[in-house]
Amino acid sequence: MAAGSILLFLVVAAATERHLSRWIGLISGSLIAATLSYRSQFWAGPTFGEGFAAASLVLGAALLCVVAVSAGSFSRRRLAVPAVVAGGIVATIASMSAYAHAGPTTRHSIAIASHDGTLLAADIYLPRSIPADGLSAILMQTRYNRGWSVRWPWRFVLTGDAPLADAFTRGDFAYVAVDARGSGASEGEQAVSFSPEERADGPALAGWIRRQSWSNATVYGEGISYAGVATDLAWSQGALDGAVVAFAPYDILRDTVWPGGLLAETFARRWSLVTTSLDAGEPERVFASLARFVSGVRPLDSDPDGTALAALIASRRNYVPYDLFASAPFRGDLVEGQDVWSRANFTYRAPQGAPPRLVIGGWYDGGNTNAALRRLIHDPGSHLLIGPWDHGGRQIISPCEDDEAKVLDYPRVVTDFLRSSSTTTGQSRVRYFTMCGGGWKESSSWPVADVRSQTLYLSGTSLNSRAAPYFPRTLIVDPSATTGKGSRWLSPANFDGTLIEYTELFDQSQHRLTFETGPLRNDMILTGNAVIETAITADAADASVFAYLEDVGPAGDVRYITEGQIRASHAALAIGRDALYEDVIPHRTLRAEHRRALSLDEPLILRFGMQATSYRIAAGRRLRLSFAGADHDNFAAVPDGASRITFHSVDGRAPTLDLPIEQ
Asked: How far apart are CA 184 and CA 313, in angstroms?
């Protein structure tokens, strides 16, 4: 397209003026127009794609031809070059503006009354051409503003629309983006996330969509993170005809805020800052670069000057997430009468005749990796796509150069699944990526059928396939030990694009107890959840225990594989009715009444799991298990926690590491 437009400009130049300076000007202007037009699709988000670039180039070509003809009338040769260059820039801006405001999608910002009369702000995106039999719709409920009010003069080239709106409407869907109750331009309040009132909003919105003149009564849901939870809530109540749930927690207490009973401090503070800033209409507090272009959430069409929106924001009194999270460390905790965790999304169950659902996850998405797998085992009819991604699939985190690894093309995956959802079978379909040379694989179920458990025993500083005498080893807890500020636990609140990596972990082996295998004779593929069993004593009643699996090369290079953690006082496993749901790792309720105390005399048995992975360790490399007593960049320290933790045998048997080995 760019080459064709340049050729067109050169033909016009030859017909209007033969001076070399003007040829150079025309070529320069052409290249600027083509480059800016191509780059504009990235500035506006990937959803515009080739159609946006094509529209920009076509209009830019036409306007540049006019400039080229006009350039021939300049009497002074030196004015021709800047005239054509300026024309290229103006043409590109004009084409961006034309597409932004007269593209293939229409948008209406309206209020929809929910089940209790609360007005929820919604943007309705429709293709300009609606078929006679109506459109299927995709519903998305977000906590992070459904759309933006763009500042002048940027509003001439930017729309502030939901990032995926254009992709979905070009895919022949209607797209309905809604501000969650108590956020954006929606009424209501958030005393806790996903209150009973908020849980009922999804079915009410789906019902409203089915009644619209443009609807064919088919409503799907999609969402990443918070929006994924909202989608799952609507799906579990039978309100949707299909759903895509991506990078979303399953049990918010265990997956996101208190994994293993330890407060994910960095995540909690960052997410709290984001939500409170958006609730106050002050995006600049966390999105400085974005705030140059937008002033806050988009008002409704009925409130063009934002007066009603400003009054709504001024009166908003939502909870402060960090304050609530930090004051509610246990399941069943009440804060100002609100049951913070027991209504979390572990109550999801597949409805009768469950509609198709695609679950998307990433191997390095905080605790949401295990969350994706929990969804699958509770609904074997769901589909799973899980790859070497961070939260949202924005980064490839595989520690190796995997040729098949690609950033997630989320719009294409969603539309392809929803279009084919009516033909899916009840059998689970799993597509997963094995890092470091394994590539993409498929399975009919999870756990993968050809995975077998292999037990390694800890002895001295070694990991062995056969039990050997074990002698206690003591970890001196270093409060400064850390996995760094680019760990997987940052990923769900990584709003500034920090690279997820573990270089700081590898530099701190002196802060940890380590156990290694010898060089592997054959490749080892781990696919699933590793589980650790040990016993500990300590010089305090409680302690934090972090465990890491690492891949060590012959030259000493180290690659992070996965990790797990546990607060020692939560050692008791949930049994029988105390187990709230079937789990992929040893289950614990995190209730205050189930706590255990450490001592110096009687070892306390810890059996805990790690985040799932699929990872190939090449022959000749070694597997390392290491323990630490802190991760200060990511987790809050246990109050009055231990400074010395001793690892013991378990009932006379060496501590074990159970590995999920893919045959």
From this structure: 8
The closest of 447, 494, 501 to 614, measured between CA atoms, is: 447
> Tens digit of pLDDT for each residue in 240-291?
999 999 999 999 999 999 999 999 999 999 999 999 999 999 999 988 888 8
Confidence of residue 47 (pLDDT cuts 50, 70, 90): very low
Tell me how many degrees the CA angle 646-652-656 measures, rounded to the nearest 5: 65
Question: Apex CA 283: angle with CA 278 and CA 285, to 5°?
Answer: 110
Output the CA angle 414-98-83, nearest 5 degrees. Answer: 130
Instruction: Spell out the residues 6+ positions from residue 595 whose beta carbon is closer than 8 angstroms to its own.
Output: 569, 570, 572
**What long-range pairs does 14-22 form, CB within 8 A, spacing at least 24?**
16/68, 16/69, 16/71, 16/72, 17/71, 17/72, 17/80, 19/77, 19/80, 21/77, 21/78, 21/80, 21/81, 22/71, 22/72, 22/77, 22/80, 22/81, 22/84
Q: In whole angstroms, how far apart are CA 33 and each of 93, 94, 264?
A: 9, 11, 47
- What pLDDT, on the 0 to 100 scale, is given for residue 450? 93
Alpha carbon distance 66, 74 (integer Å): 14
Q: Which residues contact 429 (CB under 8 A, 6 or more apart)?
A: 383, 384, 442, 444
Banded pLDDT at 41 (limits 50, 70, 90) = very low
Reported as a single tens digit per residue, the pLDDT across 213-231 is: 999 999 999 999 999 999 9
Residues 6+ apart with CB under 8 A from 103: 52, 55, 166
């509609």: which residue's tokens?
355
Residue 560, CA atoms < 13 Å, CB-side half-sphere: 27
Helix or strand holding residue 28 (H, E): helix 20-43
Q: What is the pTM of this model?
A: 0.87
Please state, in angstroms and rounded to a whole number, the distance separating the CA atoms of residues 132 and 216.
9
- Crossing angle between the packed helical segments 20-43 and 49-71, to the nearest 10 degrees: 160
The reported pLDDT for the residue numbered 289 is 84
Residue 51 is predicted with a pLDDT of: 45
pLDDT (mean) for 308-326: 96
| 217 three-class SS | strand
Of residues 447 and 24, more confidence is placed in 447
> What Å distances lie between residue 318 and 99, 248, 282, CA to CA?
38, 22, 15
Residue 595 pLDDT greater than 60, yes or no: yes
Is pLDDT larger for residue 132 or for residue 350?
A: 132
pLDDT digits (tens, 9 = 90+) for 541-574: 999 999 999 999 999 999 999 999 999 999 999 9
Instruction: Give the whole-angstrom CA distance, residue 597 versus residue 640.
Output: 12
Phi, psi (rounded to 5 degrees) for 230: -60, -40
Residue 373 CA to residue 651 CA, distance in Å, equals 32
The owner of tokens 């504009």 is 40
Are 532 and 631 a contacting pair, CB within 8 Å?
no
Q: Find how far residue 633's CA is from the centre of its chain.
A: 20
User: % helix / strand / coil in the chain, to the nearest 5?
Assistant: 35, 25, 40
Q: Distance between CA atoms of 108 and 298, rounded to whole angstroms?
A: 11
The whole-angstrom separation of Cα 408 and Cα 550 is: 25
553/538 Cα distance (integer angstroms): 33
Query: Looking at 397-511, which runs of residues are DSSP E strands?
Result: 429-434, 439-443, 451-459, 462-464, 473-476
Strand partners, 335: 338
